[in-house]
Design brief:
Number of helices: 6
Length: 168
């Protein structure tokens, strides 16, 4: 087993393009898994909610998420590349945890149609993203910077979630 772990750690150095594509594709696929829950709550529940005036259109939201998942893939790849030189267990663990909360938010907000549960979950998501950025910064500053648009977008999403909670 340790030999397999070493092979995984060395993969980005031996296959930089393939490992980068793998990281991006895994993030995109994981992100898409959350859209299953989003689709569950769009019709008619979400459409019938009173929304704040600044609610972005769904098509724009989809494009933003695709870009954010790609940036996250590049960020985790940069951390993965350092795994032969540094201990990246904490940053990788935080990255996985924040991704779980990302999917949980979709499941709770759209799937369970819970504005309150969504607000609680997105708050935890925001904190885990911040902790991920801090841990990434200690290993690779570029990786931390690549995660910054994500926390900005989640801040906007949290404000929208709060607005929806107050309006409905």
């Amino acid at each position: 087993m340790p030999n397999n772990i070493q092979k995984i750690k060395e993969f980005p150095q031996k296959h930089p393009i393939l490992s980068l594509v793998t990281a991006i594709v895994l993030c995109e696929l994981t992100g898409i898994s959350g859209s299953v829950f989003t689709a569950m709550g769009l019709e008619p529940w979400y459409q019938e909610l009173t929304k704040p005036e600044l609610t972005p259109p769904g098509s724009l939201i989809s494009i933003i998420w695709i870009i954010l998942f790609a940036l996250m893939g590049i960020a985790i790849w940069l951390i993965w590349k350092k795994s032969t030189q540094q201990n990246v267990r904490t940053p990788v663990t935080l990255f996985i945890i924040q991704f779980i909360f990302n999917i949980l938010w979709s499941a709770i907000f759209f799937g369970l149609q819970s504005l309150t549960g969504g607000m609680i979950t997105i708050t935890i998501l925001w904190i885990t993203i911040l902790l991920t950025i801090i841990s990434f910064y200690q290993i690779d500053k570029k990786a931390a910077i690549l995660m910054t648009p994500y926390i900005i977008w989640v801040t906007i999403a949290a404000a929208l979630n709060l607005s929806l909670l107050m309006l409905n």
